[in-house]
């Protein structure tokens, strides 16, 4: 009787360890699969934009809030202002840096690996290529930027 209970417990623990191992193995790959299946297309825009193809009919007006849209990697989120805790809300404009109206270096920060992929993370930032364009909507105006160089900045 004792051995039968031990075998049953061992079987259950084996299943738990197996599925836990599968979960740990697949978690880094799932966002890549999800992105491949639901890949954002560069010619699909929600807002009227200078990047939209000719003949495109926008669905709604310019966003009222400050917003970053990178169609190539599926980023479309409100840019939050405030202290470091604003980063937990998604895209964050780092205090003390410029903004598109003033010009200069505007720093917008978002999580990449600690959160799952989505429209307010930079999970797929490595998929950006030289020549890609993206928009920042700031105080009711659209500012279009073009990637001209790609490099890593160490912390």
TrEMBL record:
Q: Which domain of life is it from?
A: Bacteria
Keywords assigned: Hydrolase, Membrane, Transmembrane, Transmembrane helix
Task: Kindly list the GO molecular function terms attached to this UniProt entry.
Answer: hydrolase activity
Protein's name according to its UniProt entry: Sortase
Q: Answer whether the UniProt record assigns the keyword Transmembrane helix to this protein.
A: yes
Q: Which InterPro entries match?
A: Sortase, Sortase_dom-sf
Instruction: Report the transmembrane regions from the record.
Output: 12-31
Pfam families, sorted: Sortase
């Amino acid at each position: 009787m004792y051995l039968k209970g031990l075998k049953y417990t061992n079987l259950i623990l084996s299943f738990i360890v197996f599925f836990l191992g599968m979960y740990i193995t697949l978690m880094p790959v799932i966002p890549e699969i999800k992105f491949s299946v639901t890949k954002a297309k560069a010619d699909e825009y929600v807002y009227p934009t200078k990047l939209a193809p000719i003949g495109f009919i926008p669905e709604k007006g310019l966003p009222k809030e400050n917003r970053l849209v990178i169609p190539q990697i599926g980023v479309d989120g409100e840019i939050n202002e405030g202290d470091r805790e604003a980063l937990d809300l998604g895209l964050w404009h780092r205090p003390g840096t410029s903004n598109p109206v003033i010009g200069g270096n505007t720093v917008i920060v978002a999580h990449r690996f600690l959160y799952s992929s989505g429209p307010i993370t930079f999970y797929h930032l490595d998929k950006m290529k030289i020549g890609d364009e993206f928009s920042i909507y700031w105080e009711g105006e659209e500012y279009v930027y073009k990637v001209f160089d790609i490099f890593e900045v160490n912390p």
